[in-house]
UniProtKB/TrEMBL annotation:
GO (cellular component) term, any one: mitochondrial matrix
Domain Electron transfer flavoprotein alpha/beta-subunit N-terminal span(s) in chain numbering: 22-208
Organism expressing this protein natively: Rhodotorula toruloides (strain NP11)
Cofactor(s) of this protein: FAD
GO biological process: fatty acid beta-oxidation using acyl-CoA dehydrogenase
One Pfam entry name: ETF_alpha
Entry's localization field: Mitochondrion matrix
Cofactor binding, per record: Binds 1 FAD per dimer.
Protein name, entry field: Probable electron transfer flavoprotein subunit alpha
Length: 334
């Protein structure tokens, strides 16, 4: 297999050049630019028009060597955006900053290296901007048309984008790195705006009770239980008597009877205990999706036609407020 030719740096026609404005994210490691940042600049220049670099960091001092180098790499301008939350360029805080910059700056193109960071950040920025990302760009044919490898590099696909903003990551090895020159770009340093959520701390709920995901016995309550107080007075004593974990239907969770970490079903936990006791749960298909593989299913419901009885091994048609306390007593006596 022959090596792919490196892409020429000459930009397109004067009209394309006049319209395009490209922002290029320059990745840093420690206080320095990563090598692929220089390749990304070359790709951004290929689009034509004005090219603005973007460096982020905890504060100005932490990225100074990167800024001093980048401003000599033929950029028209260089933005530096700082915030303690941007120190490690985590996707959650960083993506909203990027999306805001692109929108406010009216950029037509936003580029970055196709590195682990670019691959993590850019899809999120694309989502926020509601455009399609173009990944691993090897060449740029005009300001709308890009080539990229597909099928693990066995074919090259040409992608023409009609999005208002072209968001793309570039394959470093196919672009010559931009060189430092004498001209220096103007540097604009500001605190970042629109920083996304930061990781602050975590509080884990500690419980003596068996874990719902792995417990051999689970007692779940549904809307039929009718209130949080009743949930605590019926479901919890039965779970205690059986040494069981507690579960709940979505209706019970949505009504505030139980924490949403206890939801069983399609959008909750999928479990398969030895014994699953469904109390006041109708047996909607979305609930069954989370518990139908349980070895023995016991259902207590006052409606003999409730669908839960179709999957139950043992069914008790009864008012739960009478049946459950009686059951608790019997289990405790046994
Ligand atoms: P209900 O359907 O209202 O049933 C209450 C039952 O209690 C009834 O059968 C009634 O006969 C019985 N009852 C009432 N009073 C008594 C009494 N005194 N004694 C005995 N029985 C009594 N649901 C989930 O559970 N988990 C999910 O993950 C989930 N994901 C969903 C995802 C999607 C996309 C959608 C659309 C829905 C999802 N749902 C999920 C909701 C699901 O469709 C049902 O609305 C929900 O499971 C109903 O919960 P329930 O059985 O507690 O309430």
């Amino acid at each position: 297999r022959t090596a792919l030719p490196r892409t020429a740096t000459r930009a397109f026609s004067a009209s394309a050049r006049a319209k395009a404005e490209t922002l290029v994210f320059l990745e840093t490691k420690g206080d320095s630019l990563v090598p692929s940042a220089a390749n990304a600049i070359t790709a951004a220049k290929k689009v034509g028009g004005k090219v603005t670099g973007l460096i982020i960091g905890k504060d100005e001092a932490s990225v100074k060597p990167a800024v001093d180098r980048a401003k000599k790499m033929g950029l028209d301008a260089l933005l530096v955006r700082t915030s303690p939350a941007l120190e490690h360029a985590l996707a959650e805080p960083t993506a909203p900053v990027f999306a805001e910059l692109v929108k406010k700056g009216g950029y037509t193109h936003f580029a970055a290296g196709h590195s682990a960071l670019g691959k993590n950040l850019f899809p999120r920025v694309a989502g926020l901007l509601e455009v399609q990302q173009i990944s691993d760009v090897m060449s740029i044919q005009d300001e709308n048309t890009f080539t990229r490898p597909v099928y693990a590099g066995n074919a090259i696909s040409t992608v023409k984008s009609t999005d208002s903003i072209k968001l793309f990551t570039v394959r470093a090895s196919t672009w010559e790195p931009a060189q430092e020159g004498d001209k220096e770009a103007e540097v604009d340093v500001k605190e970042a705006e629109n920083v996304g959520p930061e990781w602050v701390s975590e509080e884990l709920v500690k419980s003596e009770r068996p874990d719902l995901a792995t417990a051999p016995t689970v007692v779940s309550g549904g809307r039929g239980v009718k209130s949080k107080e009743a949930f605590d007075e019926t479901i919890i004593p039965l779970a205690d008597a059986l040494g069981a974990a507690i579960g709940a239907s979505r209706a019970a969770v949505d009504s505030g009877y139980a924490d949403n970490s206890l939801q069983v079903g399609q959008t909750g936990k999928v479990i398969a205990p030895n014994l699953y006791v469904a109390v006041g749960i109708s047996g909607a298909i979305q609930h069954l999706a989370g518990m139908k593989d349980s070895k023995t299913i016991v259902a207590i419901n006052k409606d003999a036609d409730a669908p839960i009885f179709q999957v139950a091994d043992i069914g008790l048609v009864a008012d739960l407020f009478e049946a459950v306390p009686e059951l608790v007593k019997k289990v405790e006596e046994a």
